[in-house]
Amino acid sequence: MTGRALIVGVLWTAPVAIVSRGASQAIPRTAVLVGAGDIASCSSTGKEATAALLDRIPGLVITIGDNAYPDGSPADFTRCYDPSWGRHKARTRPTPGDHDYDTPGASGYFDYFGAAAGDRGKGYYSYELGEWHIVALNSVIANGPTSEQLRWLRADLAASRKRCILAYFHHPRFFSTTSTAPGGGVNDYERAFWDVLYQAGATIVLNGDDRFVAPGLMEASGEATAASEKVHQTQASNRSRGHNLATSAAGHVTPVVRLDQSTAVVPLDV
Q1: N or C: which end of the chain has fewer CB within 10 A?
Q2: What long-range pairs does 147-155 form, CB within 8 A, spacing at least 24?
Q3: DSSP secondary-structure letter at 99?
Q4: CATH code at 48?
Q5: How far is it, in rounded angstroms, from Cα 183 to Cα 174?
Q6: What is the number of domains present in the chain?
Q7: Full pLDDT tens readout for the chain, 270 residues
Q8: Which residue range forms the structural domain that includes residue 78?
Q9: Cα angle vertex 169, ends 88, 32, to 5°?
């Protein structure tokens, strides 16, 4: 069974003073971030359903990897992604997944998104949204403690003056699994990402890929219970095998609003 899950994040920013008839009132501004991972397959109609939701939701659109199945080729983007999510391309801030790299160098991905995908061959970048610093990372290429990407991430976070940090990348650090193999549910390949983001005080991490989420594993991983109390990890996969859950602070499960048998929305209140 395949599923479609769309994350909608409403990010609170600085208050705005409103003056009316001699009285002033401060109300919060909001910034909207909406997106999903594992998005477009020509063999599924889920991409049209979630794109129809995007039609009614303002703000920036993010993609969390595996944008066009099966191989992220130029033809996959033209035939499978562009007719649906492509109409929001101008406001999209993408990240790649492993299926995008089934085409060498993710050339189909970088050709399609152009400058919005960051430097070609890197695919990681950052931007500001209201009072939030947003970091888009590439979990497919080298991202260990001594990698160029980690050096960039440390410098980028150190330079930011925003109080709130959100990061998104394709492969999750923690996930539920039916596997009994050692390490199942904990992805050490993304540990360096997680450690640097935690040290910088990141608030939210968004992932796709594994279609399962593990609320308890953040506490059971041994890297500090404080991380699970501080960082929200949410997964949004358009190919979720019916397991549509999202973790929030301290591993609590965010309820999913199901639209039909194969489409769901994950509200993200921060």
Answers
A1: N
A2: 147/192, 148/122, 149/122, 149/124, 150/192, 150/193, 150/196, 152/124, 153/124, 153/193, 153/196, 153/197, 154/196
A3: T
A4: 3.60.21.10
A5: 10
A6: 1
A7: 333 456 555 554 443 333 333 444 444 467 788 888 889 989 888 888 889 888 988 889 999 999 999 999 999 999 999 999 999 999 999 999 999 999 999 999 999 999 999 999 999 999 998 888 999 999 999 999 999 999 999 999 999 999 889 999 998 877 666 555 445 566 667 889 989 998 998 888 888 876 544 443 333 333 333 333 344 445 444 443 322 223 333 333 344 444 444 444 455 545
A8: 4-16+25-269
A9: 45
Contacts for 226 with CB less than 8 Å, ≥ 6 apart = none
Angstrom distance (rounded) from CA 65 to CA 37: 5
Cα–Cα distances (Å) from 127 to 57, 109, 141, 156, in that order, read: 20, 20, 20, 10
Environment class of residue 105 by beta-carbon count within 10 Å: exposed (0-12), middle (13-18) or buried (19+)?
Answer: exposed
Q: In terms of Cα–Cα distance, which of 269, 95, 246, 99 is closest to 174?
A: 246
Q: Confirm if 26 and 17 have CB atoms less than 8 A apart.
A: yes
The structure tokens 């085409």 sit at: 103
Name every residue whose Cβ is closer than 8 Å to that of residue 260 and which is 6 or more positions away in sequence: 49
Can you point out the beta strands (E) in the chain?
4-20, 23-36, 60-63, 92-93, 125-129, 132-136, 164-168, 204-207, 232-235, 246-247, 253-254, 257-258, 263-269
**Helix/strand/coil for 239:** coil
Angstrom distance (rounded) from CA 250 to CA 259: 27
